[in-house]
C-alpha cells in the first residue's frame, strides 16, 4: 500500500492495439486503450492513479501510483500485433503493514498490538508465552491483532514482541 506498481504487457513489435481491462474488487471496471493506426489513447472509468507508464506505442506497461486496497483485483493486458493476439493477466493483492505498539496494561502485563494489517499479522514473543492473540477485522479488509504476554515464570522483567508480516517483520522490547 502507498507504493507504485508497474504491470507489464507481452513485449511485441508492430503493435496494432493495446487494451488494459481492469476489474477491481471495489468499484466498477475500467479500461485503458491504445490504437496505433490513429496514435490515440482512450480511458473509460479509470482513476487518475492508473495510467500508461510510458508512451503505449513504445511500452504498453500500466503504472498504478499510490496503490491502495481499492486497487486489488484483476488486470488483463491484451496486445494485438502482426504476429497475433497476446494476453497477460495479473491478480493484484495489496499488502498493508501493521502498526506495532507495545505497552504495559494496568496490571503491568506486556501487551502487543499489530494494528490494521493486511493480511493479519502473526504476533509472538521472544520469551516463551502461552498467549492467545485476539483478532479484530475492519471494514476495509485490514485486521488488528492483540496479544497479551503470559509468562511461564514470574521473574521475567524484559520481553520482546515479534510481528511477522509479508510486508516486513518488526519487533519491540519492553520492561513492565
Which descriptors would you attach to this protein?
single chain, 176 residues, mainly beta, five-stranded antiparallel β-sheet, four-stranded antiparallel β-sheet, 15 strands, 0% helix, Ig-like_fold, Ig-like domain-containing protein, Ig-like_dom_sf, disulfide bond, membrane
**Count of discrete alpha- or pi-helical segments spanning 4 or more residues:** 0
| Average pLDDT level | 91
Helix content: under 10%
Beta-strand percent range: over 45%
Number of strands: 15
Overall shape: it is rod-shaped
> Any idea what the radius of gyration is?
23 Å
The spatial strand order of the largest sheet comes to: 4-3-2-7-8
Report the uncertain regions.
none
Order of helices and strands: EEEEEEEEEEEEEEE
Distance between the termini: 34 Å
Query: What profile does the largest beta sheet have?
Result: 5 strands, antiparallel
Q: Structural class, judged by helices and strands?
A: mainly beta
InterPro entries: CD200R, CD80_C2-set, Ig-like_dom, Ig-like_dom_sf, Ig-like_fold, Ig_V-set
Pfam families: C2-set_2 (PF08205), V-set (PF07686)
Organism: Eudyptula minor
Protein name: Ig-like domain-containing protein
Amino acid at each position: 500500500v502507498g507504493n507504485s506498481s508497474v504491470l507489464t504487457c507481452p513485449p511485441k513489435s508492430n503493435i496494432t492495439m493495446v487494451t488494459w481491462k481492469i476489474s477491481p474488487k471495489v468499484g466498477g471496471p475500467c479500461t485503458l486503450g491504445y490504437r496505433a493506426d490513429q496514435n490515440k489513447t482512450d480511458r473509460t472509468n479509470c482513476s487518475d492513479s492508473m495510467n500508461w507508464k510510458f508512451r503505449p506505442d513504445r511500452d504498453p506497461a500500466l503504472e498504478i501510483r499510490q496503490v491502495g486496497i481499492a486497487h486489488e483485483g484483476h488486470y488483463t493486458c491484451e496486445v494485438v500485433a502482426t504476429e497475433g493476439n497476446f494476453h497477460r493477466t495479473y491478480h493484484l493483492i495489496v499488502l498493508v503493514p501493521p502498526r506495532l505498539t507495545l505497552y504495559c496494561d494496568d496490571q503491568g502485563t506486556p501487551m502487543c498490538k499489530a494494528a490494521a494489517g493486511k493480511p493479519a499479522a502473526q504476533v509472538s514473543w521472544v520469551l516463551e508465552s502461552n498467549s492467545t492473540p485476539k483478532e479484530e477485522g475492519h471494514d476495509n479488509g485490514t485486521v488488528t491483532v492483540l496479544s497479551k504476554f503470559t509468562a511461564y515464570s514470574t521473574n521475567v522483567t524484559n520481553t520482546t514482541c515479534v510481528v511477522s508480516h509479508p510486508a516486513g517483520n518488526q519487533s519491540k522490547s519492553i520492561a513492565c
